[in-house]
């Protein structure tokens, strides 16, 4: 699944390993008279942008990058691709794919961030919803809705510099998912340009088959150009708390208690960290403030190689709410190690933007631009204890040089009509291994990370774990069939209906032009 890295890992100035479509394709002929409001960029900078992503593991050189003026331009691009027997189209958001999912080898990459409609964030206070462009960043949606109207979408991702259309094409999960479902659950209407080159407005009651297909559909059925999202009143402040556990069963007991209780925190996540003084993977990763300290002498005498942190947050308003009593009531039910409780108060916007300082530091050190062999998966509750013993406590006992997230989600908050594939169990855990490297990693070092990811996946398969990849990436139809399981037939039928010539999202490697079953 994540193999063959060496030949795909391309140095910044190494163009020999990237096929040059301009040697084989008449660029001017393909895009001649493409009358769009935006622009077509064949330049080195644009091609470089379209051939790379945050993962840094794959590189596929496109024919051109299209900076569209709106949905009509997207229609024109797709229709031009339909005139060709081989041309494909990929929608690129903010470039945070990990395995080349938003690339189009010798195809057309649409830069969704360039769409003029992204600047329109239309809030309807009466209906408590907002209309936003598919290429708008969630960070911009947050700032506009909160600062102008005191409102906010219900469900988020941890990192907000992602496009609306990008996360809705996968799911969009974070600490609010246990309560409101993923971001796909907060959508009431979409404008989509299908692989047939048609603009269709859809909802759960109008053109519903397209609506449910596109949500979690990995970009296979259409490009989201507008979304209508539900809003709620935004709180002023957040009490952000982390508590530590030495035993995994107590950590999972408390996390599951919180996500199934009527009275709970507004945000529940968790992560695994190394039981050492390692500055990245160890004790210091738990602290929320530079004035806080982690004293390992208070840990139980018998602790394993890793520890567990439950991360929660409670919303409150200035001059109206006192979070103290509710926080103590909720924490009083938990079994965490009493010497290891860390908390701070932040504004709501600062809490949701909490990853920004991590990005700033990573950019400053150079590691934001290096490869990121991340692995994201959903593991069934019935298998999470075994996963902990085999993976967290053994394979990953030294950490991944970045966060190792794990927290429970409820399947009942997900609509089975969406295209996303989930474990069968009612409760499952997100496992996200967010690996970082140092500023100048070798190919060998990157390969070791990729191979460890593959070892984890194969461990899950060998042990018969009920799991699914989140933000999935496979290289063969056999693997994709296994991923979707009983939903594979439905997924294929949706593709045949909304993108019958297999033009869209070739970087996912699910289908190819002129695909044969």
From TrEMBL:
Q: Which residues form a coiled coil?
A: none
The protein's Enzyme Commission number? 1.5.99.12
The answer, when asked if Oxidoreductase is one of the entry's keywords, is yes
Record's keyword terms, sorted: FAD, Flavoprotein, Oxidoreductase
Picking any one GO biological process from the record gives: cytokinin metabolic process
Domain FAD-binding PCMH-type: from-to ranges: 58-234
Mark the transmembrane ranges.
Answer: none
Which InterPro entries does this chain map to?
Cytok_DH_C_sf, Cytokinin_DH_FAD/cytokin-bd, FAD-bd_PCMH, FAD-bd_PCMH-like_sf, FAD-bd_PCMH_sub1, FAD-bd_PCMH_sub2, FAD-linked_Oxase-like_C, FAD-linked_Oxidoreductases_BP
Reaction(s) catalysed by this chain, per the record, are: N(6)-dimethylallyladenine + A + H2O = 3-methyl-2-butenal + adenine + AH2
Keyword Repeat on entry: no
Which domain of life, per UniProt?
Eukaryota
Cofactors (names): FAD
The GO molecular function terms of this record are:
cytokinin dehydrogenase activity; FAD binding; oxidoreductase activity
So what family is this one in? Answer: Belongs to the oxygen-dependent FAD-linked oxidoreductase family.
What is the designated name of this protein?
cytokinin dehydrogenase
């Amino acid at each position: 699944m994540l193999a063959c890295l060496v030949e795909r890992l391309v140095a910044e100035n190494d163009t020999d390993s990237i096929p040059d479509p301009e040697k084989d394709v008449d660029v001017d002929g393909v895009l001649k008279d493409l009358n769009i409001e935006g622009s077509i960029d064949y330049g080195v900078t644009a091609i470089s942008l379209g051939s790379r992503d945050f993962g840094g593991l794959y590189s596929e050189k496109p024919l051109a990058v299209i900076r569209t003026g709106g949905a009509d331009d997207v229609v024109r691009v797709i229709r031009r691709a339909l005139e060709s027997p081989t041309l494909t189209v990929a929608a690129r958001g903010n470039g945070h794919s990990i395995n080349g999912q938003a690339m189009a080898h010798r195809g057309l990459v649409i830069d969704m961030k360039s769409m003029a409609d992204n600047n329109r964030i239309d809030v309807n206070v009466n209906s408590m919803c907002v209309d936003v462009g598919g290429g708008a960043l969630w960070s911009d949606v947050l700032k506009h809705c909160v600062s102008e109207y005191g409102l906010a979408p219900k469900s988020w991702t941890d990192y907000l510099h992602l496009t609306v259309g990008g996360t809705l094409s996968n799911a969009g999960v974070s600490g609010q998912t246990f309560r409101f479902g993923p971001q796909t659950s907060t959508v009431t209407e979409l404008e989509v340009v299908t692989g047939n080159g048609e603009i269709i407005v859809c909802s759960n009651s109008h053109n519903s088959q397209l609506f449910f297909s596109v949500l979690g559909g990995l970009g296979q059925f259409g490009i989201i150009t507008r979304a209508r999202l539900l809003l709620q009143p935004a709180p002023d402040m957040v009490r952000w708390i982390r508590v530590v556990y030495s035993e995994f069963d107590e950590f999972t007991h408390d996390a599951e208690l919180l996500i199934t209780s009527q009275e709970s925190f507004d945000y529940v996540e968790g992560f695994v960290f190394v039981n050492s003084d390692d500055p990245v993977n160890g004790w210091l990763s738990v602290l929320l403030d530079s004035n806080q300290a982690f004293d390992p002498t208070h840990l139980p005498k018998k602790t394993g190689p890793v520890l567990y942190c439950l991360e929660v947050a409670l919303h409150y308003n200035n001059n109206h709410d006192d979070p103290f009593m509710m926080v103590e009531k909720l924490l009083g039910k938990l079994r965490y190690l009493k010497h290891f409780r860390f908390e701070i108060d932040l504004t709501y916007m600062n809490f949701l933007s909490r990853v920004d300082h991590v990005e700033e530091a990573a950019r400053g050190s150079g590691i934001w631009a290096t490869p990121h062999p991340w692995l994201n998966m959903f593991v069934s509750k019935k298998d999470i204890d075994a996963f902990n013993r085999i993976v967290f406590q053994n394979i990953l006992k030294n950490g991944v040089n970045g966060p190792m997230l794990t927290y429970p989600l409820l399947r009942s908050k997900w609509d089975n009509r969406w295209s996303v594939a989930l474990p069968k169990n009612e409760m499952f855990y997100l496992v996200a291994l967010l690996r970082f490297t140092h500023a100048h990693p070798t190919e060998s070092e990157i390969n070791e990370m990729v191979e460890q990811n593959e070892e984890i996946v194969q461990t899950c398969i060998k042990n018969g774990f009920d799991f699914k990849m989140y933000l999935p990436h496979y290289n063969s139809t056999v693997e994709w069939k296994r991923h979707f399981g009983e939903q594979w037939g439905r997924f294929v039928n949706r593709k045949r209906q909304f993108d019958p010539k297999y033009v869209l999202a070739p970087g996912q490697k699910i289908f190819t032009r002129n695909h044969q079953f």
